[in-house]
Fold this sequence. Notes:
The protein is of the alpha+beta class. The protein has two domains: 5-210 and 329-409, Zn peptidases (Aminopeptidase), CATH 3.40.630; 212-326, Alpha-Beta Plaits (2-Layer Sandwich). The protein has helices at residues 5-18, 33-48, 93-109, 135-140, 159-162, 196-199, 238-256, 293-314, 333-346, 360-364, 391-409, and strands at 52-55, 61-65, 74-80, 117-122, 183-191, 204-210, 212-221, 225-226, 262-264, 268-271, 277-278, 281-290, 317-326, 329-330, 350-355, 370-375. The strands form three sheets. Strands 1, 2, 3, 4, 5, 6, 14, 15 and 16 form a nine-stranded mixed β-sheet that branches. Strands 7, 9, 10, 12 and 13 form a five-stranded antiparallel β-sheet that branches. β1 (52-55) and β2 (61-65) form a beta hairpin. α1 runs antiparallel to α2. The longest helix has 22 residues, at 293-314. The protein is globular, with a radius of gyration of 23 Å. The structure holds (2S)-amino(hydroxy)ethanoic acid and manganese (II) ion (MN) (2 copies). The site of one manganese (II) ion (MN) has 4 residues, from loops.
Amino acid sequence: MRANGKRVVSRLEEIYQCGKKEDGTFTRMAFSEEDVRGRRLFASWAEDLGMTCRVDEAGNLIARMEGQDNSLPAILMGSHLDTVPDGGRYDGVLGCVGGLEVCETFREEGYVPKHPIELIVFTDEEGFRFGKGLTGSSAICGQDPDVSDSELDIYGEERGKVMESYGISCKDMPKAAKDPSSVHCFIELHIEQGARLYKTKTSVGVVSSIAGVNRYDVTVTGEANHAGSTAMADRKDALVAAAGFINRIPEITKEYGNEFTVATVGTIKVTPHSVNVIPGTCSFSLEIRDQDAQLMKLIEEKLRESLFDTCGKYGVTCTFVPTSFHEPAPMSEWVKGSVEQAVKELGIDYSVIPSGAFHDSLIMTSVFPTGMIFVPSEKGISHSRYEYTEDGDIENGCNVLLRTVLNVDK
Length: 410
Ligand code: HGY
Ligand code: MN
Ligand code: MN
């Protein structure tokens, strides 16, 4: 039994086109018109296969195919359809369309799995809109997705209002929690989004674990003053101090971290934000990721120390507020083993690799037996319109997914 790679590639393109925007980008921001269009298209494909679709209380789109024995726990597959701004064709979509391809191949071959199958399109995995993602998977795992109807997105829109496009509200989200006994396992196919497979010319990655991710809000406070008449020696420029700290991040991660340690300032804002005023405050996000929880703590300490030290030197003050923590997450041994067995049975070359990017599997693995399959990203590029994975690799990934489902169904 083999997946139809051409069909998958053509569906990836169709979903991509749902994100076409007037600004020339292809973006399916969570809860947007484009995102809803993509989800409707996906649901129509699943319904054409005779699957039943529903949207749970957290907005996760769940398509179900019955098995031979529906009292058995379900095999879950899936990923997300929402994208970052001007994102690519593959991130998230591959796991959804790949799962659908497994179901379609089963249908065509007249194969009915013992377990029922559920495909999940998770709500707001990317999280750039409200500054936090993994919303749907957190709710399914019974974790607090840390959301409120009144919080504002980057455009100043209220969450409660924008979530109307999914017909959901924050107060009902906890009801989306899945009973662990109703789930056999969860398998997510995804592009690597890094360059390990590409550089080593390896076809498939069996994911060992997903990096943890900790986030912080930092605010540096100096003194807003006239940009023409304030001598350099008399300034308390919040941005200059912040820049001094940000500049030290690469050295600190290099000195104390390992090859997986990364730290990033991804957003930055100054006030009053005027061409002729010295910045009085500078606020920015800081994120630390690593495969080792203790090392993440050490990097946090070193960065924090450096921040306060730098601010002291510039005569400004600062605050450092942790906003979210996710520990590094190993994949379940038996699901990982089933993926590895599938790749071997197919005779495809592979390596066991960690994931630097996070995925819904980061959360899912805390409650359900979870495994991930990676396929190469050309030059390691992702979160970009230049994201590319060769058609043959897409087909390989879908075949590994299919074979893994057969293995876990036994
Ligand atoms: O940020 C991440 O790692 C994920 O791709 N959203
Ligand atoms: Mn993704
Ligand atoms: Mn992504």
